[in-house]
Amino acid sequence: xxxxxxxxxxxxxxxxxxxxxxxxxxxxxxxxxxxxxxxxxxxxxxxxxxxxxxxxxxxxxxxxxxxxxxxxxxxxxxxxxxxxxxxxxxxxxxxxxxxxxxxxxxxxxxxxxxxxxxxxxxxxxxxxxxxxxxxxxxxxxxxxxxxxxxxxxxxxxxxxxxxxxxxxxxxxxxxxxxxxxxxxxxxxxxxxxxxxxxxxxxxxxxxxxxxxxxxxxxxxxxxxxxxxxxxxxxxxxxxxxxxxxxxxxxxxxxxxxxxxxxxxxxxxxxxxxxxxxxxxxxxxxxxxxxxxxxxxxxxxxxxxxxxxxxxxxxxxxxxxxxxxxxxxxxxxxxxxxxxxxxxxxxxxxxxxxxxxxxxxxxxxxxxxxxxxxxxxxxxxxxxxxxxxxxxxxxxxxxxxxxxxxxxxxxxxxxxxxxxxxxxxxxxxxxxxxxxxxxxxxxxxxxxxxxxxxxxxxxxxxxxxxxxxxxxxxxxxxxxxxxxxxxxxxxxxxxxxxxxxxxxxxxxxxxxxxxxxxxxxxxxxxxxxxxxxxxxxxxxxxxxxxxxxxxxxxxxxxxxxxxxxxxxxxxxxxxxxxxxxxxxxxxxxxxxxxxxxxxxxxxxxxxxxxxxxxxxxxxxxxxxxxxxxxxxxxxxxxxxxxxxxxxxxxxxxxxxxxxxxxxxxxxxxxxxxxxxxxxxxxxxxxxxxxxxxxxxxxxxxxxxxxxxxxxxxxxxxxxxxxxxxxxxxxxxxxxxxxxxxxxxxxxxxxxxxxxxxxxxxxxxxxxxxxxxxxxxxxxxxxxxxxxxxxxxxxxxxxxxxxxxxx
Length: 805
Fold this sequence. Notes:
Elements: H1 5-14, H2 50-53, E1 68-71, E2 85-88, H3 100-116, H4 125-137, H5 141-158, H6 170-194, H7 196-200, H8 212-225, H9 228-246, H10 253-265, H11 269-295, H12 298-318, H13 325-336, H14 341-354, H15 358-368, H16 374-394, H17 401-405, H18 407-424, H19 430-444, H20 450-463, H21 472-488, H22 492-509, H23 515-529, H24 531-558, H25 591-607, E3 621-628, E4 631-638, H26 639-646, E5 653-655, H27 656-663, H28 667-678, E6 685-688, E7 699-702, E8 712-714, H29 730-753, E9 755-757, H30 758-768, H31 775-787, E10 791-793, E11 800-803
Parallel strand pairs: 4-8
Antiparallel strand pairs: 1-2, 3-4, 5-7, 6-7, 9-11, 10-11
Helix pairs in contact: 3-4, 3-5, 5-8, 6-8, 6-9, 6-10, 9-11, 10-11, 11-13, 12-13, 12-15, 14-15, 14-16, 16-18, 16-19, 20-21, 20-22, 21-23, 22-24, 23-24, 29-30, 29-31
């Protein structure tokens, strides 16, 4: 029989101490000047009995003693006076209605059945929740939990039979098991919401008892999924679906995800599914790897491996448990990569490197980096490729002089290619860098001495004036690359010999493209090989500096001397031990030149007694003033060219033999000299008959109609073996002239100011320089002067410069 309202509240209060989660009832008190509680009335105004009044105070019951509180007559009923509460015991102890447990469980059991059958529930959820709370309050929690578990177990067992038939294929079976699992989860969530009070009180206080949710999982695991037939068909079906997806078919990933999460939630994923899944994966990729290595080339195979790894990662992302990731990825890597490392390298590495297939090599590195011993085999094969390819460039060209000319450039290109591969594809891995260095040193020294000679000649070609291929920055980078090759060669003394010979010619003839570049190269050699290696080279630069000072002194000396008119002589005094040995050559000089030489000899020996001067006309050069059809020009030519041109002051037409007799220049030198004057770009002589080669019966006439846009014209000498000319263009020459002017302006400003900031120096240069100039070009010149110790940066503030005396 249902309890009355007052009795129910009283009985509830008696059990408040047992349930810590019940709501605490507020004690009612009145503050001064606060309005009285409407449920409490003054005794003088109330005629209600205690029994009538008691239900109204059930909301104020104490959780500890179960006694009701009500207001006593007020001691002072004046407005604003304090009022007191008097607490009295219940006169009667409330009783539990008969058949309370049976009736309540009947209602709850009916609701659970309705949930299992997906029917509507007759009672409100609030009412069912209150019923659970009341049973727990009356200490019926244990029996309530058992009854709930029993009814849920019966329902789960009833679902087993639908999975034991053989009429369904594996996909239909999986959908059926998934539908059953989804329904079970949905039902347990709703049941738990009704029995939440039980779950949060009784279950929490008993660690040996499963929560309602875990109980549902345990029932499903024990009665359905752990059944041998159900478990086997479920796992086999999952493996078949995954196999179909690996073969390129579209499958229901949501079904896979749901069922695999079911296995994970039921804690049988690793024992029931994962081992079989990994075994199937191992077998699939072992067979696939063997087959594809035979059928496909390396780039296609690598792309397939990468695709497979991405596919497995997608499966991990979409439905596989993350705990499977390590074992799954290792399985794919082992079967598709680790088992075929040597075969991949042997079959395709050389082709990838030859074709410079950057994306494929990047992928190769990434894949080999994933497996044990992959990188070691890769950098060993990489080093072997460098040795074989480099040996073809160096050794196999030994008897081919034409290819020898391109050897250094081929080596630089090959080095750039390898560096780019190491940087782009191999992530600048130290092992590959070391393999590259060892391999270059190995093959470049397979051919003794020749690489050192060719490298020196290549440097000469880049440092000579007329090199329009690179800016200063590019030339500096090129020299750095050449120094890398220089480090690999063993015959560095051979390099020094050839480099010194070419440097001497550049310095004496004035064909050096940049003094900064020359000194930069010298500094690099000194840093690499020490001061002893560059001592003679530095002596050559020192001789040139001393010769400049000597020339100034000679000009002052000539002010008090009678000298041939129209001649300005500049002499370079060379220390024989520093410079290459030149074969003396006797040529017929004009009498004015011979007279000037004697004057200089007297001047020099007067300063340095005991020395001997030996004139070397081979590398001499002159500036001749010429008049063409009334237009004056200056011709910058070699001494041999000057001797030939000066003959035309006496006549307008000469044969080859007549020129040879008059100048006494050797045959080979004379032919090259006349070729440069009559067959080059600036043709100041006319050759008859026309042609590129000079023959014995050729005649040469002065070209009176010669025209050129420049006032000073440089006529280059034809090279001895090749017709490969290195002319200085107008732009290059102007650029060089401006460099000197900028350097002089910077030094002049810094010498005056001593200390100056970068911005102020740039502004001052803009004011002083008479030609347009860009800030980056000025910055380069400043850096050059800093390198040459004309100025230095402030240690505390790098934007400030100090002049160095």
